[in-house]
Amino acid sequence: MSEEEWERFLRESVAGAAQAPVEPSARAREVERRLRERSGQPEGWRTYAPARPRRRTGWYVTGLVAAVALLVVSLFPQQVVGWFGGDDGARDGAPLAAETEGPREAPGAEADLRPTLAEPFRGSPAARWADGTAGITVPPAKATGWMNAAQVEHALRQSRDFLVAAGLDSRVLRGERPTKAIALLNPHQKDVQEYLRTALSSAAPTPETDPLLLFSRFRPEQARLVGDVVKTRGRLTYREGKRGAVEVTADVTFVYPVTAAGDGGRDAEVVRTIVRREVVMSWDDPAEVITEPGTMSLVSYALDMTNGGCSAPTGYFVPPFGAAGDQPADEAHRVDPYDRSKPIDRSDGTAAGDDCATATRS
Q1: CA diameter of the chain
Q2: How would DSSP label each residue in 195-255?
Q3: Is 112 exposed, middle or buried (0-12, 13-18, 19+ CB in 10 A)?
């Protein structure tokens, strides 16, 4: 062997031949074994695979349904109440929502409980009604007829003021002159002014001139109001009337708990006089109708009452204390004084007149 070949042999012995096989280490053999056992793309030593997000579709759908349900309840409380058992809704004694449209049925039956001086509305649907003015719903105002939205809103407020002055004023309830209510009536409406003069001055009014057609009154020597709360439920609506007038219709039921004037005992009898009024008021364009600022004309007015008297009109409600009440003329004709789902029927004997029907409850 030449010296050159010997030197090359020594170099390759130290560095290793280029094609010489290399024995893998133990770690390399372990990695190779794991890769053979695992299918698919190998995962790096320091890589990060984020967790797959969990689907929440069910929760999202449930939340959306709940939100829609709350919106429906807030916008249409009366309809929703009707879906679950009528106008009264849940029987938990909670106050009713304001009446924003005509109910579809009468209130449900209440426990047959006798009213007392401490609880004059016990056993009555009115126990869940609002007090006084709060029970008369005034709708949102928009421009109508000759009035802009602000003027319509003012007319609606004054229309409610008339109902309050005629049916809730404590002095009027004691039989005094309804001065505030009269001040809101057009002094140039001759037929109404003639009615007022006759109704409020006659000792023997007729059915056509009975002041009860517009005003709630009791004789102080016969009956007195129990407490200072009168329950109410009803609403105002409006539309464009004749000659561009804004015509407001009020449909309101008043519940007056009263007791005999001379009975001051703890067990005094309490009678509820229930009065439903429908009054149509016209806020006329002064360019079309002779009127005065802040006054309106009466288009029509009707009354339906229970426990207010069935004989000839006296100008005052006559609650039937004890056995002194008049007997109904038609025992077969029965009406529910709390049923506001039907319009006042002027021919059924319950309106102010000579006859009365039998009330199913009071």
Answers
A1: 159
A2: HHHHHTT-SS--TTT-GGGT---B-TTTEEESTT--EEEEEEEEEE-GGG-EEEEEEEEEE
A3: exposed
Q: In whole angstroms, how far apart are CA 201 and each of 197, 220, 227? A: 6, 17, 29
Quick one: DSSP state of residue 30? H
Strands annotated E in the chain: 130-131, 136-137, 223-225, 231-240, 246-260, 270-283, 297-306, 330-335, 357-359
301 three-state secondary structure: strand
* 216 Cβ contact partners less than 8 Å away, ≥ 6 residues apart: 166, 167, 168, 172, 173, 254, 256, 275, 317
265 in Cβ contact with 242 (< 8 Å): no
User: Which tens digit of pLDDT belongs to each residue from 316-362?
Assistant: 999 999 855 444 445 557 889 999 999 987 653 334 444 567 888 98
Q: What is the pLDDT of residues 151-185, one digit of tens each?
A: 999 999 999 999 999 999 999 999 999 999 999 99
- Number of other CB atoms surrounding residue 271 within 10 Å: 23
Q: Name the nearest CA neighbour of 217 among 270, 271, 170.
A: 170
On whether the pTM is more than 0.90, the answer is no
Q: Which amino acid is at 184?
A: L
